[in-house]
Every structure is written in structure tokens, then in C-alpha cells.
Amino acid sequence: MVARFGSVRPVHPPSVSSLGAPGGGVEAAEGAVVTARRLTKAFGDLVAVDHIDFDIVRGESFGFLGPNGAGKTSTMRMIACMSPRTSGTLTVLGRDPETDGPAIRARIGLVPQEDSLDLQLTVLDNLMIYGRYFDLPKKVIRERAERLLAFAELTERARDTVEPLSGGMKRRLTIARALVSEPDLLILDEPTTGLDPQARHLLWDRLYRLKLAGVTLVITTHYMDEAEQLCDRLVVMDKGRIAASGSPAALIERYSTREVLELRFVGHEPPGHDSLAGLGERIEVLPDRVLVYADDAERALGELEGRGIRPANWLVRRSSLEDVFLSLTGRTLVD
Amino acid sequence: METWGAQHAAGGRLPPSLRVLRYHLFSYLRTWRSSLTTSFLAPVLYLAAMGVGLGSLINHHVGTVDHVRYLSFVAPGLLAASAMQVAASDSMYPVMAAIKWIRTYYAMLATPLAVKDVVLGHFGWVTVRLVITSVAYLGIMAAFGTVHSALAPLALVAAILVGLSFAGVISAFAATQENDQGFATISRLGLIPLFLLSATFFPLRQLPGWLHPLAYATPLFHGVDLCRMLVLGQLDWVSAGWDLAYLVGLCALGLVLSRRLFTRRLVV
Ligand SMILES: Nc1ncnc2c1ncn2[C@@H]1O[C@H](COP(=O)(O)OP(=O)(O)O)[C@@H](O)[C@H]1O
Ligand SMILES: [Mg+2]
What we know:
The complex is a heterodimer. Chain A is α/β, with parallel strands linked by helices. Chain A folds into two domains: 32-247, P-loop containing nucleotide triphosphate hydrolases (Rossmann fold, 3-Layer(aba) Sandwich); 254-329, Alpha-Beta Plaits (2-Layer Sandwich). Helix content of chain A is 35%, strand content 25%. A six-stranded mixed beta sheet of chain A has the order 5-6-7-3-8-9, sandwiched between helices. In chain A, strands 11-12-10-13 form a four-stranded antiparallel beta sheet, covered by helices on one side. In chain A, helix 7 (197-212) links the parallel strand 6 and strand 7. The longest helix of chain A has 16 residues, at 197-212. Chain A is globular and about 75 Å long. Chain B is an all-alpha fold. Chain B has one domain (16-266). Chain B has helices spanning 6-9, 16-30, 32-62, 70-90, 93-101, 104-109, 115-143, 154-174, 181-197, 212-217, 219-232, 237-266. In chain B, helix 3 packs across helix 7 and helix 4 (70-90) crosses helix 11 (219-232). Chain B is elongated, with a radius of gyration of 20 Å. Chain A binds chain B through residues 7, 43, 80, 82-84, 100-103, 105-108, 110, 112, 114-121, 125, 128-130, 132-136, 181, and chain B through 1-2, 4, 6, 9-14, 16, 19, 22-23, 26-27, 30-31, 102-104, 106-114, 267-268. The structure holds adenosine-5'-diphosphate and magnesium ion. Adenosine-5'-diphosphate (ADP) is lined by residues 43, 46, 48, 66, 68-74 of chain A.
């Protein structure tokens, strides 16, 4: 796979333009699987993706974290060469989606936000027809299907029709299907949205294994825990723009404090900013709770008691990407 | 370094549009029983009802129609009309399903396949369906003794052209629809009137003169005309030429229109 990537296009020397550099060149960073510069997608007047820059490196697991409508799906569809960009540059696996769509898609696996499984056919048939779109020999697909179904924990359901399967099973089948062509890049658009916690954890485990196996993953999600667990690096997306980028830890370090004190006030108005001032580096008053950002949340709690403020209950926790998003946009990820 | 032709780059030998056709065949073979009965049952029922019922009544009262028994007159018309029906229905709900309900087209477009392959594959599949139903129809017509010319096998080509000319414009229309309500309208205001008024059941001269241009403007009329001439061996080269040109033209238009409207719908 590595050799094949190299043969497509000579690897460029490391480029000066880094993530977020304004108006950078088209030159891909070394080992870049996807490079976007000022990438834009408009639907009429609505700008869904607004001049974004990012590089996705081979072997990493790269996330797009953002609320509904942020432009994640639009970005994935452009990377997957299913949707033409409005402007900007985009290079995927060394090629331009505008001119080399089929060739790029031959090496990409896509798990779309909305399932597109053939519900009347069996689990195995779904893998078969998908592999046949790539014109893989039946024998090859059957061999791979056996491994992939075991991986997706669907071996027992191989000969069942897809329709009655649970949401989690369908999602795992969609992932198995996307892997049947042994892609160099796997794109997962909201892989666990709508699943119950147990199904989500099983899916995370499978994605983690893929990551360990060295598959380049691109994941969109509006779950901060998903992004934290699965992504080496991510961009925080909001209203078509990239608000920040980096590893989960670096983002938390940069945009939030180490700890957070969550306060809930039941039955009476929460205290205003004034009475909480100075408790932490930053205070967020949300409709249902108050967040005090402090490196030492226990100390903030002590001070709160000293001021005679008594919340109905409180919680000390570590900062998360949710807090990063809140700090960047003033809004919560999931509303 | 290798050259990257579209085919090679996409990593496969079979042309992409044939892969789409292969998908349709595959999924048909998984569910063929239900549709196969309609392929054979419908012609038997129509020909029996027309020939044994209506036909004997007409033969008894007015003798022959265009020098043949009524059943022989009506059978080629039904051949063309059934091609229209099969192609139209395969281009309505299945296309909508592949766009909205099952999203098969999106699954295809995430692979090396492109919109033109999806469109050509659809046309290829409709052609296969038309071959199956038309061969069945013609065979049953022969069994009913309504085939009067050695040119009759060419009527299969005519029937397929009729079908494809409907498939093109209707699948293009289907690609613009948000739900299936438009299909009922097409059937009620399009297909059924055509079925009844395109000289399928009676010669055109039975219609008032002002309706003739309307009949000439419709594809089914030309399909019926062509099929009838070929099956009955009463070939008029000039009108056959016009019929053929009309049908081929409409097929081409439908193909271009489908490609454009499928692209507008699927690649946004
Ligand atoms: N095909 C489309 N036509 C018009 N607007 C669209 C289309 N697809 C997405 N949008 C709009 O673009 C914005 C971004 O959508 P999307 O990329 O789906 O965001 P996300 O995946 O982050 O929820 C939204 O406002 C959405 O309504
Ligand atoms: Mg989305």
C-alpha cells in the first residue's frame, strides 16, 4: 500500500504551509493523504464549508468535531469525491477529486451518515455486491467477507437479510462493506449517531482496532467522547469554519483549564456572574448548570462555600472537548 | 510509471456501467419469482381476453380489422404497450428507491462507479427486462396464432425501443421527484391514455381527425405502428422509417436527460 501511494505521485518535501496557514499552497505535507486549502462548499447562498485548511497524514485517525450543520458531511462528501467543491484546492491520495474521482474512490472506503445497505439482500450479499462494484473477483470478496464479518461480529448473521438487523449491526456491516476493497483511507461520517451506549462502545472498539492496524481514519462526530477516544488529531468545526485544531489533549490544554466544577441549582435562580467572579479562570452560565473553569476545582468549591453559595449538587471533572467547543463558540455541541 | 486510464485506475476490468447492470441482475435473481409470473401471465390474460372475448365479438360483427382477425390486429399493439408498461414501472419506483429509500445509487457513487455508469446500467437493466417480457409476449402471440410475418422478430427491437424511449424520460423525471406521488399522475394522465388511444385497440382512423396529430406526437403510437407492421408483414417503409427515427430520437433524448438530471440530483 505504501509503495502504491508513492507511485501515484512523488512525495513532496515537507511544505511550509501547516494546518491553518492562510491561503497556503497546494503542496501536500509529507505523507499527507488529504490536503485541503481554502476548501469551500456552497449550496446557493448557503456556505456550508467556508475556506477550510487541513492535512490528514497517513496512518493517523483524524476527526471533525462539530454540531449538526457545521459542514462535516459536506466536507466528507468532497473528500470522498462524491460532491464537487465550490472553490479551493483538495488533494486526496495524491490526486484531484475533480479529475480523478473514480480512481480515488477505488482506494477509499466510505461509511456515509445515512446507511445505504440493500435491506432485501443478505449481509453477505451486501458485501458481495459492493465488492463487485470494484470488480473484485467473487473469490476474493468471499475470503475478505469471512474476515470482515468476524471483525464486525456478524458471522452468525451472514445469511440473514439486513432489514431486521439492529442499528448497531447495520452500522458495523456498513463499516465491513467499506473495508471490502481494502481502502487506503476510511471515512466515517457519524459512525455511532443514534446507537445505544453498548453498541457505540463495541463500534469504538472496532474502530480502535483499525487504527492500531494502521488504517487512516477520518471520523466526523458531534460526540466529544468519541473524538477524544478515537482521534489522534482533530479540527473543531462550527458554521463551516475550523475554529481550532490539534490533538484532543493539546486542544484542552490550550482552550480550557485542567478541571471543571459543574454546579446545578434547583428551585432557585443560579447566582449571576458577579457573585461567582474570580472562582476560576472562566465561568459559563448555561440554562441547566454553571461551569467554573479552574485548574483546581476543589479549591474553587471551597471558595464557593466560603461565599455562602450552596448549589443543589456539584461535580468536579476533567476538562473535555465539550469545554473546548464551549470556550470557542459559546455554545454546547449537542443541544 | 503506469498510465492511469479511467478503467485501470478504478481497478477492474469490467466496464463500470456493466457492473451496475450486474448488480441489477444479481438482485433480480434473488427476487425473480414474483416478476417472472407477471411477464408470462399478463400476455396470456390479455390475449385470451382480447382474442376469445372481445375478438370473437368483433369478428362476428365487423369481420376483419385491417384484413386480419381482431386478435392479430390487437396483439402487436399489446406487445408495444407492455414494453411501455414494463419500462415505465422499472423507471419510476425503483429509481426513486435507489435515490431516496434504499440509496443504492449513493452506495454505487462511493465506489469507482460514476453517474453515467448508474444511468447506462439502468438502461441496460431495463433492456434486459424488455427482452425477457417481449420475447415472452411474442412467443405467446405465436402460440395464439397471431404472428403473420417472418419479420416478426424485428418487432422485438421495436418493442425494446418503445420501452427505452419511455424509460429515458421517465427515469429522468423520477430523478427530480421528492416522493412517489408524481408516478401515479404519470400513470393516470400519461400511460393509461396512451395505452387506450395510441391505436393499440383500434385503427387510428376510428379517432376523430383532430386527435390524429396528438397520436402522431406520442411514442406509443409509433411503437404500436412499427410492431404491427412487422408482425403482420404489412410494411410501409416510409412510415416505418418515421417510427424508427422518432423512437431512436426519444431514446437518445431520454439518455441525455437522465444523465443530466441524475447528476443534478446525486452529485451536489
Ligand atoms: N444538498 C444540500 N443542499 C442545500 N443545503 C445543504 C445540502 N447539504 C447540506 N446543506 C446545508 O449545509 C450545512 C452543513 O450541512 P452538513 O455538511 O450536513 O453539516 P453536518 O454534517 O456537520 O451536520 C447545513 O446548513 C445544511 O443544511
Ligand atoms: Mg452530517
